[in-house]
């Protein structure tokens, strides 16, 4: 399922941070446009889509114990062109998103291969990603 294949071609690829609407967990009828790291393709209920992990510019290291107690686990991934202000980002490891091609609005940037591999390895704690 996972692969690292970013290309600067305007199309979504694994290893890239793209933008998509992400529903809130406590109220899926609401959500927020946010950066998402694509880690590969997946099939859920017979429908193929992109497997992704959302990013945040909020520093969750400050409240790491509280986040972990709530079942939310984050990993630092550094900065990239997906954030116009150049803020450091964290990826949420425990919440796997499945996005259709039409759900992805724009390409942000690619993570470097080493960081991508670390994220996928860490996400395996919560998801059966190969």
Structure in words:
With 130 residues, the protein is mainly beta. The chain contains 2 helices and 6 strands, in the order βββαβββα. It has helices spanning 64-69, 113-123; strands at 16-23, 31-44, 47-56, 74-78, 89-99, 104-110. Strands 4-5-3-2-1-6 form a 6-stranded antiparallel beta sheet, with helices on one face. A hairpin with a 2-residue loop joins strand 2 and strand 3 (47-56). The model has no long low-confidence stretch (mean pLDDT 91).
Explain the layout of strands and helices:
Elements: E1 16-23, E2 31-44, E3 47-56, H1 64-69, E4 74-78, E5 89-99, E6 104-110, H2 113-123
Antiparallel strand pairs: 1-2, 1-6, 2-3, 3-5, 4-5
Per DSSP, what share of the residues sits in E-state strands of 2 or more residues? 35-45%
- Count all strands and give the number: 6
Straight-line distance between termini: 5 Å
**Largest sheet data:** 6 strands, antiparallel
Write out the strand line-up for the largest beta sheet, numbering strands in chain order: 4-5-3-2-1-6
If helices are DSSP runs of H or I spanning 4 or more residues, what is the number of helices? 2
Mean pLDDT: 91
User: Helicity, in percent?
Assistant: 10-25%
Using the alpha-carbon principal axes, give the shape: globular
pLDDT < 50 stretches = none
Rg value: 14 Å
Topology as a string of helices (H) and strands (E): EEEHEEEH
- Oligomeric form: single chain
Broad structural category: mainly beta
